[in-house]
């Protein structure tokens, strides 16, 4: 369980939530929004790419479904000092492959 694997490793706020049963703490990586009205446009879950095939995205997908907006999983890693590479998968609004 993530509570046991990551407990007391992500900062004081996260640690506080992990002390109590029945309360979970999951960060949301990115909410893309309109720069004029701040309406949410998409939820993006990001992860450093170590070649892993997946990342848990349950909460991000639930939020996107309730807001009726797309949700994306973005794996990234440094290609060189000025470039990144990406693997991107849509996980809500018709799921795709990387």
Descriptive notes:
The protein is α+β, with helices and mostly antiparallel strands and 98 residues long. It has a domain at 27-92. Helix content is 22%, strand content 34%. The protein is built from three helices and four strands; from the N terminus they run H-H-E-E-H-E-E. A hairpin with a 6-residue loop joins strand 1 and strand 2. It is globular. The mean pLDDT is 85.
Describe the structure concisely.
The protein is of the alpha+beta class. It has helices spanning 2-6, 12-18, 58-67, and strands at 30-33, 40-48, 71-80, 83-92.
Characteristics:
4-stranded mixed sheet, 3 helices, alpha+beta, 4 strands, 98 residues
Query: What fraction, in percent, of the residue positions are helical?
Result: 10-25%
Our Rg estimate from Cα atoms comes to 15 Å
Strand content: 25-35%
Low-confidence stretches: none
Average pLDDT confidence is 85
Largest sheet: 4 strands, mixed
Strand order of the largest sheet: 1-2-3-4
Distance, first to last CA = 26 Å
What global shape is seen?
globular
| Number of extended strands | 4
Question: Could you state the order of secondary-structure elements as H and E?
Answer: HHEEHEE
What class would the helix/strand composition place it in? alpha+beta
Number of distinct helices = 3
- Assembly state here? single chain
């Amino acid at each position: 369980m993530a509570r046991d694997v990551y407990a007391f490793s992500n900062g004081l706020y996260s640690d506080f939530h992990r002390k109590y049963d029945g309360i979970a703490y999951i960060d949301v990586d990115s909410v893309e929004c309109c720069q004029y009205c701040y309406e949410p446009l998409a939820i993006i879950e990001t992860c450093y790419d170590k070649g892993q095939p997946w990342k848990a995205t349950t909460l991000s997908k639930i939020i996107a479904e309730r807001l009726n907006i797309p949700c994306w999983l973005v794996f990234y890693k440094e290609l060189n000092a000025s470039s990144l590479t990406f693997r991107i998968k849509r996980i809500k609004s018709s799921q795709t492959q990387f």
